[in-house]
Amino acid sequence: xxxxxxxxxxxVTGGSSGVGLALVNDLLSCGxxxxxxxxxxxxxxxxxxxxxxxxxxxxxxxACDVRLAGQVDRFIAAxxxxxxxxxxxxxxxxxxxxxxxxxxxxxxxxxxxxxKFAGVxxxxxAARNYLAASDAGVVVNVNAVLARQPEPRLxxxxxxxxxxxxxxxxxxxxxxxxxxxxxxxxxxxxxxxxWRRRFDQRSDDQRGDDVEQSWExxxxxxxxxxxxxxxxxxxxxxxxxVITMLLSPRASYVTGTSIDVAGGVGRxx
Length: 269
What we know:
The chain is of the alpha/beta class.
């Protein structure tokens, strides 16, 4: 099926690894022109240059911290100058803070809120007029199931993601009259570098007698502990497919909604 993304200009924040990197690859493979950013430009360029779909004529990479409005403004302006349009925006930059309530310092709460909200507010503000000028303007916010199903071990992140889910609905309402669709994907446990590092960095106490435990065995145990129906972690490509669908003009009547990409972990109705 043709997703009608050929020559569409899509902005992806946080494109140096995981979901963002997989999405950049898939969008290039669909014929889109892609602008992506990360704080570490060397890492971003190394990652994107290794992609199967890499095409320097259809890809713009820039260093940008989404918490800083000025940097975001320059990134979006450079995208429009290079490609002449902005049709889609994927707010993907972010991370999680593994802390319970009592262990989270106040400045860590503020840092989580700043990253989750600034990472959407600044790019949407900078790209809004360009998106409105498109005949298929669309925003996708990459969020997490934590937005509806808080995790006590991720107290600040859960709270910030709940706020982002609320903000996404507000943006869908506010930007709809301008022809801009706004949706979100809610991720469960996805097999990214973060989980691989946790596996590699297990202490001897965590390894116990099972020193030869494989990644597949370890991650399956995590999935069982978290109640993931499919019994495994998801992949970045599985998330990318859903985001790509939401970006497609074929999804032109889909706005103000969220889609779980979580293997059935959600326990809410």
